[in-house]
Amino acid sequence: MIAKLHLVTDDRVLGRAKFTEAASAALAAGGQRVAIHLRGPRTPARLLWEIGAALRPVAKAEGAAFLVNDRLDLALALDADGGHLAGQSVTVANARSLLGPTALVGCSVHGREDAGRASGNGVASGRGAPDASGAAGSRPADFVIAGALFPTPTHPARDASGVGLIAEVRDALPGLPVVGIGGVDASRVSEVVAAGAHGVAVVRAAWDALDAGAAVAELLDALDRTRGGPTDGGRHGGAPLDIVVKGALIDVVVNGAPRKAPAGATVKDLIESLGLAPAMVVVERNLEILERSAYGTVALAPGDRLELVHFVGGG
User: Which domains are delineated in the chain?
Assistant: First the structure.
């Protein structure tokens, strides 16, 4: 199963002293709903291997996919779940011959013109170079990452394509999951998914946050709200934050994010729509703490701002 949230590194974040701690927190927050991409085009191979060796067991324990970008030698050395191919990488068929038939193979595309690289049709690039394996019609990539959708300092020389690129790539590669990248954060997830994306890939939205684990949880929540709830398991639980009913909807803000709720819904309705037990939730409504006894009688009003804190028990 292809994760809907891909956490991609770059040379800048790999050089941080506490990167492995941040990445471990991100993996714990995402579990099997995320894939982490070890990517560092200018990072020395030894450092990439050391970081990968530290993170590989964490990803495995959490159930997250662990991929290495471009460096298939390191993917093999680290026993990664697969590899991701950049524009100048070997072909998909080459990667499969090296990594094995069960490995995940992803491919970056930046437009319809180079989508053939991922199709397994014997094309290595948009210039029509033949696949070195000679295996025309071979198995395509398992997924593609398309971008940059929005302006991003990660690729300053590349013009933003807009979310229309998602439809272009889907048309060129029918049936292949397309993951959108480039300037994507939690506020843009719905726009990317609405354009037809399977999911999103991020760099800064995860690694530049003060708390990478919290950032991952926010991104997954955004995916849940767009798609109507998590469908692919993992540790990140919870139901969609929008209450789906017929009738008029009102605008409220829950934990800092805008939401829709049906007119007449109570605070208890909202809590239960999240799959939470009211007895385990503390609610602050418009800067005042609500008594739990009032959850079922206080109706949500347009413009309400609510902060929900869920307490998880256990020994």
Answer: 5-227 (3.20.20.70), 249-310 (3.10.20.30)
